[in-house]
Amino acid sequence: MSISEAADEAGTTLLNGIVDGSVDFRGKPSVRSTSGGWRSSGFIIGAEVAEKFAYLGIASNLITYFTGPLEMSTASAASNVNLWLGTAAFLPLIWGSIADSFLGRYRTILLTSSLYILGLGLLTFSATIPSLCKDQETLVSCVSKLKITIFFSALYLIAIGEGGFKVCIRAFGADQFDEQDPKESKAKSVYFNWSYFARSAGILTTRLISNYVQENLSWALGFGIPCLSMMLSLFLFLLGTHTYRFSTGGEGRKQFNPFVRIGRVFVAAAKNRQQTSSETYHLVPTESSKTFRFLDRAAISCDSREVEEAKAVLSLVPIWMCCLVFGIVYAQSPTFFTKQGSTMDRSISSTLLFPAATLQCFINLSILVFIPIYDRLFVSMARSITHRPAGITTLQRISTGIFLSIPSLVIAALVEMKRLKTARDHGLVDSPEATVPMSVCWLIPQYVLYGVSDVFTMVGLQEFFYGQVPVELRSLGLSLYLSVVGIGNFLSSFMVAVIEKATSQSGQVSWFANNLNQAHLDYFYWLLACLSSVAFVSFVCFAKSYVYRNPK
Length: 552
Prior knowledge:
This protein has helices at 3-16, 37-59, 62-67, 74-90, 92-103, 105-126, 145-174, 182-216, 219-239, 258-271, 277-280, 304-322, 324-330, 333-342, 361-386, 394-425, 444-467, 474-503, 521-545; strands at residues 18-23, 29-31, 246-247, 344-345, 436-439. The protein is mainly α. A 3-stranded antiparallel β-sheet has the order 2-1-3. A two-stranded parallel ribbon has the order 4-5. Helix 10 (258-271) packs across helix 12 (304-322). The model is unreliable at 1-15 and 250-254 (pLDDT under 50). Keywords: Membrane, Transmembrane, Transmembrane helix. It is a multi-pass membrane protein.
């Protein structure tokens, strides 16, 4: 095709409003005026809000269910919550690969939604199974094996469904904006902010409603409401089908598994390690990245595009590793922050207590308040200084969030030290069930700072990992972002198990003793603050040398 013919074709495409690289639900080229953009993302954001209502309706108060109806110890309950949350956040790596290679994002969303709803239904049923002991006191656990079996089966079925749903629907939502169009490209960055805002609104609502219902009315009803919410999520998603754009770059296209493709490059580079750069120079495109040149040797037996994919993913590894400590910090809100609050004065009136898990609402409130400030005020101010469309780079945004997590942990440690002192002053050290006469409002600052940190880090990670991988690997890119939380939860569970074993030997009181008035959560928070400081310095060092890539 000649240059003039190509120009004519581009002009015709622009005139007709056809979006390059995407089709509609009939398989025809997408028309800009009738598909994608905010028109489609409205349905997707609605589905995400309903799904987050369902997921956090279970996750935010799970430790209370473990230590209450399932009669687990504090350390065991925290480890189980971390393992489940970690699994749910790690599975996107697998589902992202399946979506990019076989099913496509749309079909993966439908499949995982069905598994999700089935898991929530089984979880609701498990909560209706009665105790074995009735009202009798006994030293033996009153929880039946059937109840535990169905409960954990349902819980991990939810993790399987949630892991696939969230990674695909976020990538699918971003797919609705055309990066080649300046207006839509700018809207995509705004989309990441406001989708996170909307999800936070859903989470805030469920923490106010589900947590209260679970602790004051019925656990079965408290699990049933999230099940209905997930059904609503699937309905909203299907409602927008006729407006969606389906990317032809990765949506449903059959190709090698991303892990296989990337693995082939490393194997080929190792096999061809004897080749000199001059022998492979003519095989590598002139626009090839200049980093990780040892992978260029793989061009002898692999496609040059696969080599670039491997380089793109490899360049993300140092950034990903530095963020894992933030993943550990992220795991504390639904576990030890919640248990910390359960021992304090939570009275609203003489007869009414609000659930400790409801304190997590302050995370979402701070997100809801700060995202508009960030989007309308902070970005404008930063843009006038840096002259960047987004104000600051995504890596600068992430590093700011990691830094803010440090004072959040310091405040948590100081408040816990004050709580322990108050318990000692009032002779409550040996009274684990007694309420420490210290207002739970002391915990609000750590939750608020935690939420502001989220706005910077989590939204930044989502945008960074989505934008810095090739188009065909975008589900995998978002999987890497979500796996930060997943691996962080696994590491948190591992740390709790190791510290529990180390500090409970030789007659010592464990940092995570069931009696929190004798435990030392403050030591754990100080340890995490130190680790976060090291992670922040490491992140800044790697971020300075990172070269941004054009995923196209």
